[in-house]
């Protein structure tokens, strides 16, 4: 019954929102003329966005981007890049939309429009030390004896820089690099969103990784859009409302 309801909502969304006709906003007009929705993603933040063995972008973000493109009557095209380059790419017009597990923050919202959240998560830690994994207060790792790793340009990096000033911080371009640092014993803990390190722990069951017992923050994940096209923002907002039934 629930599956049938989801299918009905998707059909309704695609029927109401596709195809989009002129007049359109500047970015929306570009998308329609090109026949493609260019989606910016890191493709390295599983399970939201990742690549399969064939090099194809997969995950919740890819599925959502494909649905949005279909509703607009165009095809999705994924542009992968380091997470820290996504907002600059959106501002420069190299991508039309960001779907990459991006937390909505006031600072980011001054550079781009955001729709959502479509997912809620929170910061936590992945470690090889069971004692550290049991910590329920981030202040417990705010010490010079701890070396932490986080994704460059992420709210995980901001979290450490603002609240864990005494700890040593290393940043990496990808989550895989950060997990590798932890496995190799170069850092004491990875700071990331819960689904990211929970999957990493599952992928490396033989490496003695321990998922932290507590979530330290509230992280609303949203869709990043150009600030100069309110029609595109409204279209994606309405589509997400139809998809989730939260109109």
Summarize this structure briefly.
The chain is α/β, with parallel strands linked by helices and 247 residues long. It has helices at 2-17, 26-34, 60-72, 86-91, 106-109, 130-133, 155-163, 175-183, 194-203, 230-244, and strands spanning 36-41, 50-51, 57-58, 75-80, 97-103, 113-121, 123-127, 147-151, 168-172, 189-193, 210-211, 219-225. The protein has two domains: 2-120 and 220-244, D-Maltodextrin-Binding Protein, domain 2 (3-Layer(aba) Sandwich); 123-217, Periplasmic binding protein-like II (D-Maltodextrin-Binding Protein, domain 2).
Work out the strand percent: 15-25%
Order of helices and strands: HHEEEHEHEHEEHEHEHEHEEH
Biggest beta sheet summary: 5 strands, mixed
Q: Report how far apart the termini are.
A: 21 Å
**Structural class by secondary-structure content:** alpha/beta
The number of strands is: 12
List the total number of helices.
Answer: 10
Radius of gyration: 19 Å
Mean pLDDT over all positions: 90
Instruction: Catalogue the unreliable spans.
Output: none
Number of domains in the coordinates? 2
| Sheet with most strands: strand arrangement | 4-1-5-12-6
CATH architecture verdict of the largest domain: 3-Layer(aba) Sandwich
Net shape = elongated
Helix residue percentage:
25-40%
CATH homologous superfamily (4th level) name of the largest domain = Periplasmic binding protein-like II
The CATH class label of the largest domain is Alpha Beta
Under CATH, the topology of the largest domain can be stated as: D-Maltodextrin-Binding Protein, domain 2
